[in-house]
Amino acid sequence: MPTLEINNLHVSVENKEILKGVDLTVNAGEIHALMGPNGNGKSTLLLTIMGHPKYTVTEGSITFDGKDVLQMSVDQRSKAGLFIAMQNPQEVPGVTNSDFLKAAVNAHREQPIRLFEFIRLLDKTIDEVGMKSDMAHRFLNEGFSGGEKKRNEIIQMKLLKPQLAMLDELDSGLDVDALKIVADNVLDVYKETNMGMIIVSHYERFYELIRPTHAHVLVNGRIVKSGDHELARKIDAEGYEWLIQEQNLVLEEEEPVRRAVSLGTCAANVRGKGE
Amino acid sequence: MMELTVNSSEQFVIDTEKNEVSEYKLQVAPRSKSAVIITVQGSKNARLNLDVNVGDSSDFTLLVINHNEAELEINERYSLHAYSKTVVAHCDLNGYDATVNSDYTIKEKGASLLVQTASLTRNSEAHVNNYGVVLAHGNCDMVVKNTIVKGAHGSSTHQTSRLLTYDKTSVGKILPVLYIYDNDVAASHAASLGQPDSDQLYYLQSRGLSYGEALKLIIIGYLLPITTVISDEQLGNTLKDEIEMKVGEACSM
Lengths: 275, 253
What we know:
- The complex is a heterodimer.
- Chain A is of the alpha/beta class.
- Chain A has a domain at 4-94 and 157-246: 3-Layer(aba) Sandwich (Rossmann fold), CATH 3.40.50.300.
- Chain A contains 9 helices and 13 strands.
- Chain A has helices spanning 42-49, 74-79, 97-107, 115-128, 146-160, 176-193, 204-210, 229-238, 241-246, and strands at residues 4-13, 16-26, 31-35, 56-64, 67-68, 82-85, 92-96, 139-140, 164-168, 196-200, 214-219, 222-227, 265-270.
- Chain A has a 6-stranded mixed β-sheet with strand order 6-9-10-3-11-12, with helices on both faces. In chain A, strands 2-1-4-5 form a 4-stranded antiparallel β-sheet, with helices on one face.
- In chain A, helix 4 (115-128) crosses helix 5.
- Helices cover 16% and strands 52% of the residues of chain B.
- An 8-stranded parallel β-sheet of chain B has the order 2-4-6-8-10-12-14-16, covered by helices on one side. A 6-stranded parallel β-sheet of chain B has the order 1-3-5-7-9-11, with no helix packed on it.
- Classes of the chains: A alpha/beta, B alpha/beta.
- At the A-B interface, helix 2, strand 7, helix 3 and strand 13 of A face strand 15, strand 16, helix 1 and helix 2 of B.
- Strand 13 of chain A pairs antiparallel with strand 16 (185-194) of chain B.
């Protein structure tokens, strides 16, 4: 069964080093909880594994099933069995969910799926994650609530059946009932495929449902402590302060994000009556 | 010139091999609900002149589908009467030069107008609200002009112009223009120009779609709103299939 191996991974964004030597091994059937204060590299690690162009690997290696992941394009990584459920799934206006999902399913098959088989599969999956059937005809994530976007990520995971799934704050935006439905569906895929998982979450409630086999804490771009589910419980109860003191760490401050502003709309001229 | 009173659905096919200049004068019957679809095909440079008078309280849709494999010039003039509802749509998927000169006059109160275009083009010029995709090595100047005449009290005018550039070899230019000759109006224009959103592309690729497949899906989604102006579901699906096929061909070039 495939193993994800990360060795001495260094990653930069716009010449600022975010990851500073991450080592991690995830075997099939293992569930790894990845924790850490905000802005310390958790999402960077997952997006780097999935080939986001914003992140530059400056040193180290990532292999999956013995193959060099860093040499693969984004779609090749998906076809190799990697999957990321995103923290902020993109909205794509004009592209219906069903068209997108069919294209994604077909990308993982040698022969295109038959239309009726796809419709039956999609209807069943939508029902299992507790979404309304009209989601298939809505534009991809456009106008979706936070919870609907997260459920849509799970629909994609269920259809693609990856060998390694990375869930980036999948639980944010979900109410208690939705959290249970999502966790149940994640576990269904896990039991069916024996996939490995890396889960980023700040909440023990999600980990109680998923029951990670391993837990890691990422601080200042490095994994500073590893353990099992007990470590996740301890952090949920006590926070990170004890760990920072134990490891004699100084949290690096996040630089304020400067975003370019694009003026896509200009010139509004409205005059009231009588002017 | 073909003169016709319209009170139901009509379809016309113009063959530019036979008619290099076609002229239609349409009188939309008051209180009617009707749609006219004009398909232009052939391979000769051609001109289409449209003179449309939309009767009061009518509901009228006109769709022009351009398959002509040569230059096409459309000159259209609309007069909209009281409480009429008019939708004009231009679908241009051939990549040949197309120029649309439009003149819409709202004659009486309560009339409404929606103009929508979808174009997949290398060199085109349009004078209406427009969604366009500039293909590789393509060049598109989109000029969008609205004139709000003196006396158009309480009117509301909004332009939206969007151009999607395929890659670094695509050149696009949008010139939104509003001529306003009255104070008592609301008017705005919005223009956006740029390449497909890299985060959207990444998202689609992360599900196994190649760069080309992801780009194709985004372009199709960009052009598809034109199909919503047609209430006939079958015709809407036919147009959708056609857009998908043409985008597929364009993206594989």
